[in-house]
Backbone:
């Protein structure tokens, strides 16, 4: 993991296949107590411009379990909320912090922080990518099946930041991925192309037929149909996305051993039914827990606590 020491995670494309697999292996070891690295005296800053439950809490608990401290840099109570330039904020925060996780809107803002701050910067979510979520997702899938390579994951719904990061993560780990979404909501073409460049042992399909997409799949994954900042269009999206609802009918078309994932929060009876999210094939709560373990592995790697 020395390759990651001092680096940034702005997108899963910042990792190669070996680094991603090593992160997942480290996360599993940390989860089950096989390794107990310490970062006593280190400080993680959380700069979140968007609301958060799982990301905020999982990062905080992960850092505490590593022995470090967490500072919540609420934009509403700091100068960044009053328009201080990112370049100035970044150069100040690097003098105080050892590592910084940022949850914001524009991917370029994360990139600017990384350009100006000489500490590891973690993308805790932007409108384009959600890499930390996918670390937890892949860890969950590997726990369930004992492998990643050769499995098929189907994502249903909006071609959003989660879909983008799933495309990259699946490409790097040999997971076949099918993204089923209305044509006008498909993933960004450039990100799909990048995933296909990264893929050496997996297939990538962007389709609009939900039933065909889930047939024989090992993992069924969905997310809200309107992400943060898109609430005004939520009602208008309902009829467009209805054919992509993850319900028992679609689950029955998947492989018998298929699992169900959702990154949460869930709008039950919209993108997923209560029957499915609470059903025996759901691994949603394991997936949520694994945010903490995956991010602990990421923090430990970026701080150089493991070799």
Residues:
């Amino acid at each position: 993991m020395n390759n990651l020491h001092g680096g940034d995670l702005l997108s899963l494309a910042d990792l190669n296949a070996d680094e991603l697999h090593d992160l997942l292996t480290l996360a599993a070891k940390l989860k089950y107590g096989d390794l107990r690295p310490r970062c006593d005296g280190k400080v993680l800053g959380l700069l979140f411009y968007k609301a958060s439950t799982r990301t905020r809490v999982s990062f905080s608990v992960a850092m505490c379990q590593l022995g470090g401290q967490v500072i919540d840099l609420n934009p509403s109570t700091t100068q960044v909320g009053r328009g201080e330039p990112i370049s100035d904020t970044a150069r100040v925060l690097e003098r105080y912090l050892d590592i910084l996780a940022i949850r914001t809107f524009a991917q370029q803002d994360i990139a600017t922080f990384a350009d100006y701050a000489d500490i590891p910067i973690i993308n805790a979510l932007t409108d384009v990518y959600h890499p930390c979520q996918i670390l937890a997702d892949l860890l969950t899938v590997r726990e369930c099946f004992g492998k990643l390579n050769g499995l098929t994951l189907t994502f249903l719904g909006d071609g959003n930041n989660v879909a983008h990061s799933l495309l990259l993560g699946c490409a790097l780990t040999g997971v076949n991925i099918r993204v089923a979404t209305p044509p006008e909501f498909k993933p960004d073409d450039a990100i799909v192309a990048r995933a296909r460049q990264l893929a050496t042992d997996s297939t990538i399909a962007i389709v609009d037929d939900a039933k065909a997409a889930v047939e024989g799949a090992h993992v069924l994954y969905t997310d809200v149909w309107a992400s943060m900042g898109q609430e005004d269009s939520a009602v208008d999206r309902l009829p467009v996305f209805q054919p992509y609802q993850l319900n028992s009918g679609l689950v029955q078309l998947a492989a018998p051993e298929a699992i169900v994932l959702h990154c949460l929060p869930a709008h039950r009876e919209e993108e997923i039914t209560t029957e499915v999210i609470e059903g025996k094939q759901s691994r949603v709560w394991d997936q949520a827990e694994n945010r903490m373990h995956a991010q602990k592995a990421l923090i430990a790697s970026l701080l150089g606590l493991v070799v």
Observations:
- DSSP finds twelve helices and nine strands in the chain.
- The mean pLDDT is 96.
- The beta strands are 43-48, 69-72, 99-103, 121-123, 152-156, 176-180, 204-207, 219-222, 259-262.
